[in-house]
Design a protein that fits this description.
By secondary structure, this protein is mainly α. It has one domain. Helices cover 81% and strands 0% of the residues. The longest helix is centred in the N-terminal third of the chain and has 33 residues. It is elongated, with a radius of gyration of 18 Å. InterPro entries: DedA_domain, VTT_dom. This is Membrane protein DedA, SNARE-associated domain. It comes from Pollutimonas bauzanensis. Pfam families: VTT_dom. Keywords: Membrane, Transmembrane, Transmembrane helix.
Length: 183
């Protein structure tokens, strides 16, 4: 059963999903927390931990291999230049906010890693950003569950369908994003 799988493996899924992207898995985690299968605070902690770990990985990839990565992925070059311009003016805000900026989830930390910002400073502000991000996105999933409960008095009857609907919507959005990249 899907709900038992979520209860057994949900925290690992939230952490792993948050390493790269994470919004969809955090929404699902927030919804599962509303339904009582997961703890909201642990969903947020796993999401923040995974998000911070992924950004730290990209930061150090940028620090060590940034130039080579930008050559390999030339579509990141305009984004990296934009991040660098913003970094010069809003260093702390940029580190915190880069995860909220569409299209900069990987390119942003790589570009920041290519700068002269000390790793400890990136880590500090990245943790703040990850905590804010995970809380807001998981809360959206929790509120989605609250809204469904308000709309349907017998929400337990529809919860698996709602989880599948969220997952299907995420797949469709990812496919659309990929098609736009390649066209």
């Amino acid at each position: 059963m899907l709900t038992q799988f979520i209860a057994d493996h949900g925290y690992w899924a939230v952490f792993a999903g948050s390493v790269l992207e994470g919004e969809t898995v955090l929404v699902l985690g927030g919804f599962a927390a509303h339904q009582g299968y997961l703890s909201f605070l642990l969903v947020v902690a796993c999401g923040a931990g995974g998000g911070a770990a992924g950004d730290l990985l990209f930061f150090f990839l940028g620090r060590r291999h940034g130039g080579a990565l930008l050559e390999r992925f030339p579509q990141w070059q305009p984004r990296a230049r934009q991040v660098n311009r913003w970094l010069m003016r809003y260093q702390a805000g940029m580190i915190i906010g880069v995860r909220f900026m569409y299209g900069l989830r990987a390119a942003g930390p790589i570009a920041i890693g290519m700068s002269d910002i000390p790793a400890w400073r990136f880590l500090l502000f990245n943790l703040i950003g990850a905590a804010l991000w995970a809380t807001l996105i998981a809360a959206a999933g929790y509120l989605f569950g609250q809204t469904l409960q308000w709309l349907f008095t017998d929400i337990k009857r529809y919860e698996e369908a709602a989880l599948l609907l969220i997952a299907a919507a995420a797949v469709v959005l990812a496919l659309i994003r990929q098609l736009r990249k390649h066209s």
